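Fresh eyes needed here. Kindly weigh in on this sequence plus structure tokens:
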Amino acid sequence: MTKTTPLSGLATAGMEPLTSVGRAFIEGWVEASGEIAAFLGRRIQSDIDLQRQILQCRDPAELVRIQTAFVEKAVEDYRAETGKLARIGHAMREAVLPADTD
């Protein structure tokens, strides 16, 4: 059985903020990592679809249309993903840092 002293109680109380910060950081990191993995999976699938479309293409104008659509979609996907990761990062920051540190 562990004996509780005033000093050990102070140490335990002092560790609680560190524990919650660590937990918030890890949860945010896991969320960001999952989002990145899902995004990469979607982009790889888009690359595979592009290759399939190019292989089936028989017209140069159609090839340009396919490639243009791919690039436009990629730009939009990366823009949206950047926004998602920024929101996750902001939520992590809010969970880890007190509001008055701005």
